[in-house]
Amino acid sequence: MLLLSRQNEKPDNMKKRFIVVWFRHLTTDWLTLRRPDLQSVPFVIAAPDHGRLMIIATNMLAETQGILPGMVVADAKAIHPEIEVIHAIPGITEKLLKALGEWCIRYTPIISVDLPDGLILDMSGCAHLWGGERGYLKEIVNRLRSKGYDARAAITDTIGTAWAVSRYGRVNPIIEPEQQASALLNLPPEALRLEPLIIERLQKLGFRTIGSFIDMPRSVLRRRFGAAFIQRLDQALGLEEEYRIPIIPIEAYQERLPCLEPVRTATAIEIALQTLLERLCERLQKEGKGIRTAIFRGYRVDGKTVHIDIGTNRPTHNIRHIFKLFELKISSIEPALGIELFILDAPKVEDVSLDQETLWNEERKQLDDLIIAELLDKVAGKVGAHNIRRYLPQEHYWPERSIKQSSSLQEQPATTWRTDRPRPVQLLSYPQRVEVTAPIPDYPPILFRYKNKVHHIKKADGPERIEREWWLEEGEHRDYYTVEDQDGQRYWLFRAGHYSAEQSQWFIHGFFA
Amino acid sequence: MEKAALKKDVISRLRKDILLLEGYKPPLTGNSNAIGLGLIEDAFPNAVFPRGSIHEFLCDQPEHAAASGGFISGLLKSLMKQGGACLWIGLSRTIFPPALKAFGVEPDRIIFIDLKRERDVLWVMEEAIKCEGLAAVIAEIEAVSFTESRRLQLAVEKSRVTGFIVRNDLQKLSSTACAARWKITPLPSEIDNGLPGVGFPKWNVELLKVKNGNPGEWKMEWSDQGFRPSREKALNAPLKQTERKAG
To answer: CA-CA to A214 of 20 to 30 Å: which in A54, A112, A290, A406?
Structure first.
């Protein structure tokens, strides 16, 4: 057969398997969960369309009465006058499917939403964890059904066929590899995800099943039904790749650890973390990369996720070090009823510079030593990185601006530290007002009162005038004096602006050693 | 006479043995380990400033804190000579980094950690002094209990990092396991020939307690990039054994 020979040519080293989940009554099931009183009542969800109310979703009970989506509410009322009509909430389908998709992340990392009523899970290489494809499918469908969603699912090699079998298949939801064509034979053409217009045309021509036209020459089909039709057919058969955008983007550096039994103890969480770290760091080491940030997530049985994250000052793949950083936060994980899946992500990864290994044992200690970086990581993990500060000189005379915070340990000062002017060891973050007696202009005061204590000035230096940088802020200049009182205590005082007997304002700004 | 000399010799040898048993190793070569404190160093066991132990500084006023800051920076100059970094941990830190340059310390080699809770200060201090890559760790803290100081002291004995605790609440003063307790207070500076201006920083250095050493009181000045004994002739000797305070 032509099709089969072409299938065999496909360069595919890993066999893809997809499971498509179809929610037959997605929105109505959800509403029933929210309002249990609707359980035994036939109801429909309707939205206005061209000036009338159109039914967009029905529940099982309404469906048995013959009320189907696409009908007008007035017609439905004619069939069943007591039917309950509920107005649609815009955007709810997308939200629901996304939430369900996120819940399904425990089964596979690659999940995409298939509007309006399905989920597509790329289950390649996942099924063995649930004891084979049958167990996998059963687990998903049973879990969704026990939650209250009427779900059907099918597993095949292609998204197209899985979609078709989940909706129209009657025999077996699991299609063996490369058996798509035979599975499709007895299904109606609607199963190919075609435009309504094409379906209508196919039905007019008497094509009741896919099998009736699947063997026709491609050129004929293309001429009659267009390129989109051929594309859908090829996608279902696996002759053409179909791409989907996953709801959770795939992290390049991620490790997963599903648990057979939900775990609840700190020791178990530590073991999980250790295992994941070993796997991830081994990979990073091979590629010469190191972690800058990492997130450790736990998916709980009750559907919530818990996570802890760490950051490092320099890229590292040292398992012991990263584990220690996480260890500080493990106590903040609430396992509740148990965690069934652990995921370790490294969203930020950088190249490890090789020289750091040589620095390790060097006699002369360096500021950017690995050991210090690791210490600071630990401190940052406990108290926050914003509390760790390192200062570099800045070319400003204004004392508050003469230093700037450095962002890294490697950064070297661009200018030298100035020592030509006296600067106090303790600098108040804000200058404080002091009362002074300063009888002579441009001379230091003879006494000042600070915190209710009078200090008689015995020795003084100054003034050192520091102009305010007018291009940065406005205000008066400062005339700084270094003064020493009767007890030998040394202070840094300044007068804001020029001297005037009554209005001069004096401040204390620091204490000298 | 000869007997007395022999006795003295035996006693000094026994003292040295005891020191050795307590973990104080005699200096290997000459003055290489000197911290630059001159006369004060004689007060310590083996006449060596104890690195790898916790030193406690008492200061209850910002003026005293400034003096202690200057004094510690002077010690850091020697401690950081071999490179390495220094951690300065505090609750409401007011140390102004550029001023430390005057005491011979590169301010960009000091990492400041500003915290909100005293408990965190002790935690960071303990983690830091376990880290052998650091030259010194300074923590500004209100009070430290005996148990806490013992923990810190045991940690530094292993890592040989020098730790400084600056305590600013003297109401809660308790005995600690620190190797030395200092009190640094500012003194009026000295100016030659009545010239105007303020002179070099000058302090009254009190060594209130020192393990296996002799407490004392000295007047020191920071000039010419080093500690100098005060130029005025004053009591610059350790207290006599009889005047020694307990501890």
So the answer is: A112
